[in-house]
Write a structure and sequence with these properties.
By secondary structure, the chain is mainly β. The chain contains six helices and 48 strands. It is globular, with a radius of gyration of 31 Å. It is found in: Cell outer membrane.
Amino acid sequence: MIQHLPTRLITLFICLNCSLFSSNTHAQKSNWILQGVIQDNLSEPLNSATVTLLDPNDSTLIAFGVSNAQGQFQIKGLREEKLLIQVAFLGFEAYHKIIQKPTEGNELLLDTITLIERTTELDEFTLEDIAPITIKKDTIEYHADAFKTQPNANVEELLKRLPGVEVDQNGNIKAQGETVNRILVDGKEFFGTDPKIASKNLLAEAIEKVQILDRKSEQAQFTGIDDGQREKTINLKLKKDYKNGFFGNISAGYGPDQRYSIQGNANKFTENQQISFLGLSNNINEQGFSIDNYLNFQGGIQGLGAGGAGVVRITIGGGGAGSAGIPINNGQRLNGIMDSHGYGANLNQDFGKKTQLRSSYFLNNLNHQISQSTDRLNFFPSGNLISQESSIQDNQSTNHKINAIIDHKIDSLNSFRSTSSAQLNLTDRIARSETVNRDDEGNMLNSGNRLNLTTGSGYQANTEMLLRHRFKKPGKTISANLTFGLSLDENEGSLYAENEFFGDNPSLEIIQQEQIQKNENFSYGANISYTEPLGGRKYLELVYNIRQNRNKVNQSVFDREGENLVFNEPLSNHFNALYTYHRPGANVSYNAGSYNIVAGIALQATTLNGETYLTQTQVNNSFQNLLPSMNMNYSFSNTKNLTLNYQTNVNEPSIQQLQPVINNSDPLNIYIGNPNLRPAYMHSMRINYNSFDMGKFINLFANMFVNHTENSIVNAQSIDDRQIRTIIPVNVKNNTVMGGNFNLGFPLKAIHSRFNIGPNFNHNRSFTLLNDLEDQIKILNLGGNFRYDFTWKEYINFGLAANISRQNTAYNFNPQQNQRFINQSYSTDLGLNFLQKYSFNTKYNLLRYNSQTSDFDESIPLLNISLSRFVLKNNMGEVKLSCDNLLNQNIGIAQRADVNFIEQTVTNNLGRFYMLSFTYKMNNKANPLGNIRRTGSPTMTRIMN
């Protein structure tokens, strides 16, 4: 019965939509069109004026549109006999009129609408002035109260209702087809740059306006010279009452098997100060806010014991402490069993008009238990290797992180900016694993049992100081940026391994080792930029950049012989490395009204010096590279633009890759660094096209990219007669990756629906070495996503989504071993608000994994349901009964293929659990609309509802 529930829900709502569509199709015979022209009192057309159509009985929003450059507007698909039209434009008095359906024909052409410019500023706004959407040059502004959400909804739920804005099931936000990387609150940073912290924790009812803008780079904002760099940004403007009050919410839930969840946030905002607190504690694998520094549990002591399915997973740089935090979900199901605890504070303070402070602090604690099995098919010219591994891990981490930004305007021409961050990580890890390797015929080649214990601590600190001076001549500036970085990692661990080899010469090897490692990294650099106007909207920028990294690694390995520890010199290492580059360059920019071009070139001179004291190995390399660049941005209009970007970069090898010592974290898979590595040289080209029709709310986004890397660094693999694999990083001649994605979103207003379609592709051509034979490998990914949403007022939200990825991997050395597999994800979600006080929500996901090579075919159905009852005055409280994972699927599956393998991994997961929770909305301003002055027709007072 339960298994058929999602299908029945889907069928029910498809039928509902079909009936709505059928009834609307029947009514289309009487549909009519409204047209008109909007101008100012000088008879000049007004571009992007907002036209809103309301029901005159209750002021319900019926439709809206936007005027074009000629001041013309057209709204189709109207069926109402009588409508209230409202026209609004920034700086002008609003226009209102009752209009009737045409008695003849299906088109109503209004007389020219003339808006009168305002002569005074109003301290209060009237409801007539509220338009759902307003366009201000390069900013689209949504009035939040025109898009009703249910009580206690967060900003994420509000964003889902805004035309042109999309939020996927993982909380990632797109606006006008582009990814939103930053959310500001009243123009200020909110807990750093992670947009999900604001969208998931701030109350929707606290927001007055949602502004979507293309934010220019810090350098462009300072110099006034458009460098073509843009970042899609959302700014949340708070309601006046919330700027001088305290608001937030707290939620607590408990269920059988001692499952619990507590989380909350509290905010106190004023014009000059923002104080916020976040917190969560749960044992249900729940993420209350995302932090992009997920702990790499495989990091302890250069990946000690981190082998998975016969693969050594190496932590590149930074040692064992990693960068801890509450894990983030990048689209996959979060696996393992986790106890998460996280706490954060954010302080933004304006000290007068010249000095601003932006700061935040996080404390995160995570206990992650993982039980995992992996099947991997490895391809070598000499034959296939079948690996099977099972492992159990218990990972614990504690992470402290603090950030602070100080902006100070010394005077009108000079400014100072300081950006600092510090982080402390503490980790403990216990891992047990068993590995078996077989040949094609199923004969056992070797097996290994390992126990790894790891304890690590790490400290990181970074500081950046920026001094800027603007000359009196417009466009003439100079700035100096100084950077400093320090990281210290210390790790201790032990390894116990039993490795048995079969065949003609069977043997058993037992390894017992203790290991101590200390990593130190100190970096500093400077960047000086000078800009000079050349006339005719042309500018010259001269840049000089210097950077130096100093790395020290002290690794000592001891073999345990009885009660004694014996120093193991081949596995130990004392290594120093110094990486330095100087990069002078010049950029020329041209800024026209609709487009700008920036072209530049730099010369990078790189030196790489290193020394291994135990083996007396010297590394002394130097390289010179020309680094051309070009960026062009062409704006067809405020909502349609084309961007072309070309960049070149030099990526130096990491200290981990340079160390010429043996890493036997997994004795069946040995890793050895290569001191002769050269830096990789990358060419990157990207083309973006973005279009958003404000009148029809159709968004179109297309992106194409090509990355070509010379001297690409890859892992060469060789396998000996005992099936022990050795991995060494090497340079190959090149590696090319190209791809693209396309997104089209459009509404069907007649059935209250919206569709989003997004096909994509990715092609990777790379070279690798297998048993000293160079081979070319081609990986092609074809896929796409589809999303359908049905919304009827604040009562019903229904969605269907699909995401499909098909990968084909082709090998030159043996085309018969080419790999094909498909990963699929389907979902449906339903939200019902009824009887004014109740809310029902359900979400169903179906994850499918299919391999045409290995006949692997698995599915995971996931179903969550909840029923809420809003209580207390103004719906300040919410009682919720929920069941997560109703179908009790307690595993997670992953499937992937790479240069010479395909693998499937099955991991434990949290099964079905029930929870009864209570959420209380804290707000010392229970009536946020209390200061609105209601004027005019009584019907207008309901526009906000």
